[in-house]
């Protein structure tokens, strides 16, 4: 997929560092795909670490819920799982990176 990253348009962002866990069929006979997103490097995470932090995970969750309730088919999150790992991110893109917990 493509989009904006670090304040600039990027033609190819990767695969969201998504790790496929499997599928389940719920009581309504609907198939649900289970994934961890932002869990680490994948073949398409380029040179980045493939990790997500809480702030970007919450933003993505809120956006996907808004899109769903607008009637547009989208993915939805069931939960956010935080890690004991930390990464360095420039939260405000101002040259002052800080440690953030991985999610």
Automatic annotation (TrEMBL):
Keyword annotations: ATP-binding, Magnesium, Metal-binding, Nucleotide-binding, Nucleotidyltransferase, Transferase
Q: Which cofactor does it need?
A: Mg(2+)
Q: Does the keyword ATP-binding apply?
A: yes
Molecular functions (GO terms)? ATP binding; metal ion binding; nucleotidyltransferase activity
A Pfam family (short name) is: SelO
- Name the protein family: Belongs to the SELO family.
Under which name does UniProt file this protein?
Selenoprotein O
The protein's organism comes out as Rotaria magnacalcarata
């Amino acid at each position: 997929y493509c989009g904006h990253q670090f304040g600039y348009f990027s033609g190819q962002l990767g695969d969201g560092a998504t790790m496929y866990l499997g599928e389940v069929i719920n009581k309504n006979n609907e198939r649900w795909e289970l994934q961890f997103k932002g869990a680490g490097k994948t073949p398409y995470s380029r040179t980045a670490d493939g990790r997500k932090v809480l702030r970007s995970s919450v933003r993505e969750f809120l956006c996907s819920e808004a899109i769903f309730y607008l009637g547009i088919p989208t993915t939805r999150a069931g939960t956010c799982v935080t890690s004991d790992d930390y990464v360095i991110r420039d939260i405000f893109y101002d040259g002052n990176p800080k440690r953030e917990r991985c999610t």
